[in-house]
Design a protein that fits this description.
Layout (H helix, E strand, L loop, with lengths): L10 E3 L7 E3 L20 H4 L2 H4 L2 H13 L5 E2 L3 H8 L3 H13 L3 E3 L4 E3 L17 H7 L1 H10 L2 H5 L1
Antiparallel strand pairs: 1-2, 3-5, 4-5
Helix pairs in contact: 3-5, 6-7
Length: 158
């Protein structure tokens, strides 16, 4: 038989320059504990604007890779498994992955991912808008995918 002991736990957080804030868990018998493996994200991710610098798809991919990574941030999920689990298309995945690499949050060698420690500051990667049909065919993954899909198998073999 399992004995459950309910404790009233009060956490006190002190931030420099702030008054003490007292927080009491809302459901004291459901306080999270670390059992086995776990994932974490530095508070800097939110407080220093990294969260706000990411697109929706970048956030999905980043959070997924944080959750599945080992203690060094390394994971090896395939792109199709990632796309399936986070419900994005391969084109959306590629844009998100490349955006995370450009922002110095992720490293990828074609097989392994490594979620990196946060850089000192947010790496902004402004992209110029795709204005012409040629820009779209050269840069837009969805357009590139459509062009490939329209090619006949005979044309692709050449």
């Amino acid at each position: 038989m399992e004995t459950v002991i309910l404790l009233r736990l009060t956490l006190i957080f002190i931030r420099q320059g702030d008054a003490m804030i007292e927080k009491t868990p809302l459901v004291s018998h459901r306080i999270r504990t670390i059992n086995g493996s776990f994932a974490w994200i530095s508070h800097r991710f939110l407080r220093q604007g990294f969260w706000g610098s990411l697109t929706h798809h970048e956030l999905l991919v980043y959070l997924f890779l944080v959750i599945v990574g080992d203690r060094q941030g390394i994971s090896y999920y395939s792109f199709d498994k990632i796309c399936s689990l986070v419900a994005i298309s391969p084109d959306e995945y590629i844009v998100a992955r490349d955006g995370l690499i450009d922002k110095d949050l992720l490293s990828f060698d074609g097989h392994l991912f490594q979620v990196l420690s946060l850089p000192e500051q947010i790496m902004s990667t402004p992209r110029s808008p795709l204005m012409t049909k040629e820009d779209m065919q050269r840069e837009d993954p969805a357009t590139i995918h459509q062009i490939i899909a329209r090619c006949s198998p005979r044309d692709r073999a050449r």
